[in-house]
Write a structure and sequence with these properties.
Low-confidence stretches: 1-9
Mean pLDDT: 87
Number of helices: 10
Shape: globular
Strand content: under 5%
Largest sheet: none
Helix content: over 70%
Oligomer: single chain
Length: 215
C-alpha cells in the first residue's frame, strides 16, 4: 500500500515501516481533529451572529451562514471548511505517502466535519471539506467538481442539487483521472456519506420545497 513488500528484507526496514505506519495513524487522528473544528460556529460567534446550529436550517455550514450573516461571512466559512479538507492531505502528501493514504486522510477530515468531537458530533454536510480534500489529492478532479457545481447551480438555481450531482459524478471522473480503484472506492464512500448528510435536502427536492439560490 505504502511500500514494496519485496523490500522487506531486514529488521531495520521493518522498523522503518512500522514507524511509518505509526506516524500515519497519528496523522489520521490529527486529520479528524482538524476536520472537527467547526468554522461556521467559531466565525459566527466571533462576529456576534447566532449559533448556526440553532437558527435557520440548524446546519453549521456555509449555506446556513449565508442566511444568517451574508455572503462575506459565508465565503469565510466556505474557505475554512475547504482548508480543513486540504491541509491534512497536504501534510500527508509532504510525508511521502501514496494516493490511498491521501484519500483516507481526506475521509478522516470529512468525518471530523460531519461528526465533530469538539461540538457533540453535530457537524455540517461536508461538501466544502470534501472539495478541499479533493483539490489537494488531485487538482483536476477538484476543478471538475467545482465546474459541475457551478454549472448546475447556474442553470437549476438549487445549491444542494448542484452539490449532489457533482458529488455523485466525482467517483467516476476521479477513477478516469487516477486509474486507482481502491482510492476511488474511498471517494465513493465519501460521496455516499454526503448523500446521507443531505437526506433532508433530498426529501425537500422530491417534494419540490428546496430553497433556490437568490440572485
Amino acid at each position: 500500500m505504502f511500500f514494496d513488500l519485496n523490500e522487506l528484507c531486514t529488521g531495520r526496514q521493518l522498523g522503518e515501516i512500522f514507524e511509518m505506519v505509526d506516524s500515519y495513524f497519528w496523522l489520521l487522528i490529527v486529520s479528524y481533529l482538524i476536520g472537527s473544528i467547526s468554522s461556521a460556529v467559531i466565525i459566527c460567534k466571533a462576529l456576534g451572529l447566532p449559533d448556526p446550529r440553532t437558527q435557520g436550517s440548524k446546519n453549521p455550514g456555509a449555506t446556513n451562514v449565508l442566511r444568517l450573516g451574508g455572503k462575506k461571512t459565508a465565503a469565510f466559512v466556505l474557505l475554512f471548511d475547504g482548508l480543513k479538507g486540504a491541509f491534512p492531505v497536504f501534510i500527508v502528501d509532504y510525508h511521502g505517502f501514496g494516493l490511498i493514504a491521501l484519500t483516507l486522510t481526506a475521509l478522516c477530515a470529512f468525518l471530523g466535519h460531519i461528526f465533530p468531537v469538539f461540538f457533540r458530533f453535530r457537524g455540517g454536510k461536508g461538501v466544502a471539506t470534501y472539495l478541499g480534500g479533493l483539490i489537494a489529492i488531485n487538482f483536476l478532479a477538484g476543478l471538475i467538481f467545482s465546474l459541475i457545481w457551478l454549472l448546475v447551480a447556474k442553470v437549476l438555481k438549487i445549491s444542494s442539487l448542484a452539490a449532489l450531482i457533482a458529488t455523485a459524478l466525482s467517483p467516476f471522473y476521479f477513477y478516469l483521472i487516477t486509474g486507482d480503484l481502491k482510492s476511488t472506492l474511498i471517494i465513493g464512500l465519501i460521496s455516499l456519506l454526503i448523500f446521507y448528510t443531505h437526506r433532508g435536502n433530498i426529501k425537500r427536492l422530491i417534494n419540490k420545497d428546496e430553497d433556490v439560490i437568490q440572485s
